[in-house]
Amino acid sequence: MKRNLIVAANDVNRIRTDIVNVVKTFGAEYSETVIEEVFQVFSDKFVNNSFMIRTSNKQPDKLNCSLRYHEEDEQYLGFGWDVARKSGLLSDRGRPVDRLVPEICETFPVIADGVDFDVKYGLGKIWQFLRGVVSVEQAFKLSSLPKSVTAHAGFFKKYHLDALYALGIDYHHNSVNFYFDTYHPEHHTSEYYKNLLQDLQFQLPSHKLLEVLKNNGEIALTFNYSSSRIERLCFYMPFLTREAVPQELLNPLLKKFVEEAPALVDNPGFVVGWSFGPKGGKGTYVKVDVDYHNRTVPLFVKAHSQPLPKEFTLTL
After folding, report:
1. Residue pLDDT, tens place only, 15-39
2. In whole angstroms, what is the distance from residue 295 CA to residue 197 CA?
3. How far apart are CA 216 and CA 193, in angstroms?
């Protein structure tokens, strides 16, 4: 037992050191106090679960940094939300977003959860991963959702955004993310992504990226409580090695992160997310997550390769 505790302590120290090195190397804004508070509560989760360090180029001259874990043991479902509330890392401000996690757990079978932390301000988001997928219409019964979700029922149907497998509750931005499986044949055409973005009057990417998105594994939509529109679209793709990441589609800082990102394995996998928002506004940037323990990318691939329930396959 003593030896295991030493190993765990060494892993925690290495993870903390790697995070600090990332923020200093890439100019990310951070708070030592915030990092310390997060590690005081969640450090063992970073060691024992799927764990990722994320950067993104929301600003052209530097990257931001966040860290997240996905709980792998079902006996600890709800741990993130419960402990965050009890520790004070997450407070109840009486908003609808503050009621969503308990409501989701009461409404759907949840197979896993996860927590996201920004190194500058702390806990930002909690995910709920559903057992299998559910139709997006079933999620409409959640009374604490933004009203803009049900207002886009026709949009979901038009673009086959119906196989919902996870929700992300963003406490910092007062918003909710819906994550969809890309099961439909149209999801794997470049024209689909072009039409989807044009329909929302979002900034269009290069033809090369549109071609890459044909292999997209997941589509996420962001809804804010203070807006009637879809705030953002993000397309996530997994890559098994550093070399597999299409670095020609990344800016120099993100390329450097892919080349140098710390991990407990020699050649980790990555998840890249291409985010799009309104033309001339926020929301268009790239996120890059390094799979620190090399657990997340295999889980991502597995989750999106499972047979879907009969009601989805019939819509093909």
Report:
1. 999 999 999 999 999 999 999 999 9
2. 31
3. 10
